Amino acid sequence: MIVRGAFTGLISGILMGLFIKVLEIVSGKKIYVLLLNLDFIPGFKNASFSELTEFTFHLLVAIPIGILFAFLVKRFHLDDKRKQYLVAIGITLPTVFLYFPLTILAIKETPAPFDGIAIFLWSMGHIAFALFLPIFYKTTKQKG
Predict the structure, then answer these.
(1) CB 128 within 8 Å of CB 27
(2) pLDDT tens, residue order, the chain (144 aa)
(3) CB pairs under 8 A, 24+ apart, for 72-75?
(4) pTM (global) more than 0.85
(5) Residues 134/85, Cβ–Cβ less than 8 Å
(6) Contact assessment for residue 132 and residue 57, using Cβ atoms and an 8 Å cutoff
């Protein structure tokens, strides 16, 4: 369960990150910068990380979410994909609201806290993550 959940979170996190990067390129809104930003964390204010390192930090958040998703699916025997989507949206929805403190605390240039287009694009990226979780999570049927 942990390995499957970690794999699910990893793949979903990679795809979400790439999707948000494309949305940033197309829109010009710095939502990918916001996704990878670490400068608000004490001790990281003046740190200069590569994009790959920052992306890895993003994945270190996505993986535990994938594990939590797998745990909930297994614990509550959610073999029905519709129920899995509801759980995925339920555990991912709070991340949408991180937009506000992350934009307010960011030192790097990120979208304005109440930029409607950026909020919409950020939300779309996180909803995509929620939709990817059940797609990449494979339930196992027990024999007997």
Answers:
(1) no
(2) 999 999 999 999 999 999 999 999 999 999 999 999 999 998 888 889 999 999 999 999 999 999 999 999 999 999 999 999 999 999 999 999 999 999 999 999 999 999 999 999 999 999 999 999 999 998 655 444
(3) 73/137, 73/139, 74/1
(4) yes
(5) yes
(6) no
Q: Could you give the angle at which helices 2-27 and 116-136 cross, rounded to 10 degrees?
A: 150
Find, among 140, 124, 131, 8, the residue nearest to 64 by Cα: 8
Convert 32-71 into a string of H (helix), E (strand) and C (coil).
Answer: HHHHHCCCCCCCCCCCCCCHHHHHHHHHHHHHHHHHHHHH
Q: Contact at 8 Å (CB) between 17 and 58? A: yes
- Contact indicator for 134, 91 with CB cutoff of 8 Å: no
| Dist. CA 111–CA 128, nearest whole Å | 20
Question: In this structure, what token pair is assigned to residue 88?
Answer: 């995925």
